[in-house]
Amino acid sequence: EVQLVESGGGLVQPGGSLRLSCAASGFTFGLTAMDWVRQAPGKGFEWVSHISAGGDATTYAASVKGRFTISRDNGKNTLYLQMNNLEPEDTAVYYCSPTLSDKRGPGTQVTVSS
Q1: Separation of alpha carbons 68 and 76, rounded Å
Q2: What does the pLDDT average to over 12-24?
């Protein structure tokens, strides 16, 4: 059974940083491309970033490019999202998901506010 558990969210001031983690189990993580997606209050899901199974290829939504960095540790079955220079518009629940899958964990709340 696919299990995904996101963590690392919190309340941060504009310009601050957070590092999200996603612990994965129940599938061959090291052979699976992964995504971060987010859902802001009252809005639909928004794709944020993608990383290839080996971690050598990454892509980002225009809204986060240059501020967020996706990475992974296949030895620890863990996906990361380093978020710098956070903006109020980044406020959302963040989820990790295998690419092209609707599987997600419970998410972690990120709130950017002064």
Answers
A1: 21
A2: 98
d(CA 64, CA 38): 12
> What is the side-by-side strand order in the sheet with 68-73?
3-7, 18-25, 78-83, 68-73
Q: Strands 108-112 and 10-12: what pairing?
A: parallel
DSSP 8-class letter at 65: T
CA–CA separation, 17 vs 57, rounded Å? Answer: 23
The Cβ of residue 7 has, within 10 Å, a number of other Cβ atoms equal to: 16
Report residue 48 CA to chain centroid gap: 7
**Cα(96)–Cα(98) distance, integer angstroms:** 7
- Report pLDDT digits (tens) over 78-99: 999 999 999 999 999 999 999 9
> Max alpha carbon distance in the chain (Å)?
40
